[in-house]
Amino acid sequence: MRTSVRAVQALALLAGFYLIALGCLAALAAVDVLILTHSDTVGSAGGLKLVGVTLLVAIPLLRGVFFVRRPKDVAPPGVSVSEQQQPELWARVRTLADQVGTRAPAEIRLIPAVNAAVSENPRLLGLIPGHRRMLIGVPLMIGLTEPQLDAVLAHELGHYSNRDTRLAGITVRGRQSLIAVVQHARAGGRHVTASLFARYANLYIRVSESVGRRQELAADLAAARIAGRDHAAAALRQLPALDAAYDFYLDRYAGVGWDAGLLPLAEEFYGGFRSLLGSAQRQEELEKVRREPPVQETSPYDSHPPITERVAALEALPPDGRTVTGAERPALAVLRDVAPLFAAVAATALSPRAAGKRPVPWPELASGAGRAALVADCAKLTDAAGRALGRPLQSLPDLLGAIDAGWLDAVRAQLPAAAPAADGPPSDAAADALRPLVLLALLDQGRVAFTQSWEQVLHLDFPDPALREALGPAVESAVATPPDTTPLRALLGTGQPSA
């Protein structure tokens, strides 16, 4: 009932906006008529100037009220799946729509995002239903269980079972009109007009968004009724964890070879995300996010209540006997032919800038990206040595020769200071800069290798544990006071320093 009252308030404010706008236009028109009919009093030139001023005020009002275009129904990147291709998914969505009490979508589209939504492009300010599309993120299919997926989809469908959502098209249109008036007025330097309608827009948005927040909580109740209280709460806890995991995956794994011109194969893209989520270490990290969802900054204009508030509201409901057992099937069980389907979705996720990148298997991606990262890390020392020696550094043996010749202090002076350590004394800047150069030499000798690991980004594998143990002391000895390059030369097999 309170939501209905808020919705009516939003409509009343929207009507008030149109009345104020039309009243202003009528007043401006009346002023123009007076000016033109009394042009002999103010002078024809002065009258035209005054009319021009009124037009400058009227134009943003006209554009905002009458010329705000309805957004085109453009589908986001992804792949639409037919009922013939995915009968189990379509049957599940139709069943959920019946349980919620709304019509099923006309299209189901899998998208490369941690998101689910139902969109509709209605006509006549939202009064006539339009094409209804359900969006389901592939990361959700990978990271949720079947009951959790039911809860998420029932929530999205639940927005359309509430009669108040029939007013959504009108309120959205009103918000677009108000924002357009303010933007056009500010762009034209008409600050008085902009300030007037900005204040009204703030009030309108606050009221309309409060309706949205109540509808979110109502949709959560629909999800709990259909999927079970505990499953609905678990789904809400899982969403921020999946969001964090997917962002981490895109940045640190799928994008790790970007600068080296490498990308994962489309057919392996979402398999990588599944592997990341399957890592015991990563699950421990994500469990912390599930237990304590991140605190969200809120404002009166947020259409969604904080996750913590929504979880608390669900967990305050009486138990319904549908507890989380850990034996639930993954949401992927409702899909057929997952590999080619996910490959097609992954291909839509790539930006145009990815056209020049080379797709490679995960082991090759780890190897190429790891080497490129080492080469980039070597630049600090090679640049410093070049400035100190007055010539380009040729190789690691060239650097060791310069150290033996007494150039270490000059090279060290060209290096930036080491970053302070979180605990303990700061590390040696020269040792930190020399280590990548030594690792690159060992990599080229085939004695170490970058291997794919879902526990550690760019994991450098040492097949010989003794080599790992000897590396640190050898590097430290080469930059000690006085320096001794003999252990490092022995480790690399570059021969002994010349006398």
Sketch the major β-sheet.
Answer: 4 strands, mixed
Portion in beta strands: 5-15%
Query: What's the β-strand tally?
Result: 8
Low-confidence stretches: none
Task: Give the strand order of the largest sheet, numbering strands 1, 2, ... along the chain.
Answer: 1-2-4-3
Order of secondary-structure elements: HHHEHEEEHHHHHEHHHHEHHHHEEHH
Secondary structure class reads alpha/beta
Q: Quick check: average pLDDT?
A: 83
Multimeric status of the protein: single chain
User: Approximately how much helix is present in the residues?
Assistant: 55-70%
Distance between the termini: 92 Å
How would you describe the shape? extended
Task: From the structure above, extract its key features.
499 residues; alpha/beta; four-stranded mixed β-sheet; two-stranded parallel sheet; 19 helices; 61% helix; extended
Summary, kept brief:
With 499 residues, the chain is of the alpha/beta class.
